[in-house]
Design a protein that fits this description.
The protein is an alpha+beta fold and about 220 residues long. The chain has a domain of about 130 residues. About 30% of the residues lie in helices and about 30% in strands. It has 6 helices and 11 strands. A 7-stranded mixed β-sheet has the order 1-2-3-4-5-6-8. The longest helix has 30 residues. The protein is elongated and about 90 Å long. Bound molecules: 2-acetamido-2-deoxy-beta-D-glucopyranose (NAG) (4 copies). The site of one 2-acetamido-2-deoxy-beta-D-glucopyranose (NAG) has 3 residues, from loops. This is Secreted protein.
Length: about 220
């Protein structure tokens, strides 16, 4: 009887030690900021219209996820969007995913940036819990044909987190601003450092499934840069 009890107690002790040993590392990680750093700020779009924005930076990732999804954006003429600033690849890259992307079958848009990871971290640290005021306007054209599947795959391979940010879907590279045509629409999106006028394929064209790119072979879209 006593022997049995001894073994039972020993077994329970061993189990406790094992469970503790397994639990520790995650607790230590959590205490040690593996949870992403979070920054929030407000931005004034026009007199009296201020929106909330947020960025998170997963530890050791060289990336920032920016959320510009304030409900006051549409009334102010802006689109809600999620942005990824990815400095993990060879060249820094920004993706813009419009919130209404699914409904309208839009691609995610790829921008180049001259910002560096440390620029962005410094900017975020500075603006945490502050109002950033007005931002300069820039214009880019995102209405060009989406990347071919092959080109998109290459991009996702070199910047793996883009695959998730773009939901593994279609991708369009932006270029210097184009003149708008009747098939295009200009939407406004907030980036970290600008108000972006983004030319996209207009409503008339984007509700239909695209004939190019998504299935089968994309038309030879040129990869720049
Ligand atoms: C930003 O400010 C909030 C609120 O003061 C704070 O909890 C958070 O840790 C700050 N973020 C960073 C990354 O310092
Ligand atoms: C980056 O800097 C170069 C040289 O100053 C400039 O030509 C280019 O337009 C900049 N690109 C962006 C995305 O700001
Ligand atoms: C952005 O679009 C607005 C109209 O919504 C226009 O007034 C402004 O000039 C554009 N900015 C640039 C840099 O093209
Ligand atoms: C958009 O649709 C119109 C017809 O509705 C077509 O003529 C035009 O080529 C399309 N544009 C693009 C960029 O697909």
């Amino acid at each position: 009887m006593d022997i049995k009890l001894f073994w039972l107690v020993s077994a329970m002790l061993l189990l406790t030690v094992l469970v503790e040993a397994r639990r520790r590392p995650t607790e230590r990680r959590r205490g040690n900021r593996v949870t992403p750093s979070r920054y929030t700020w407000t931005r004034e779009l026009a007199a009296g219209t201020t929106v909330n924005e947020e960025a998170t930076t997963p530890e050791d990732s060289n990336q920032m996820y920016v959320k510009s999804i304030d409900d006051r954006l549409p009334a102010a003429g802006f689109k809600k969007a999620l942005l990824l600033y990815d400095f993990s690849g060879i060249s820094p890259i920004v993706s813009v995913t419009l919130y209404e992307r699914h409904r309208r079958g839009l691609p995610c848009y790829i921008l180049d940036t001259n910002l560096t990871y440390s620029d962005v971290i410094a900017t975020l640290a500075q603006r945490n819990n502050t109002d950033v005021g007005a931002s300069p306007e820039i214009s880019l054209d995102g209405s060009s044909p989406v990347l071919s599947r092959q080109a998109a795959r290459e991009l996702f391979d070199s910047n793996p987190s883009l695959r998730k940010a773009c939901r593994g879907g279609r991708v369009a590279r932006t270029s210097a601003a184009a003149t708008a045509s009747e098939n295009t629409e200009v939407v406004k999106v907030l980036t970290l450092d600008s108000v972006l006028n983004l030319t996209i394929q207009g409503a008339a064209n984007s509700t239909r499934p695209s004939r190019r790119g998504s299935r089968g072979r994309g038309r030879g879209s040129s990869r720049q840069g």
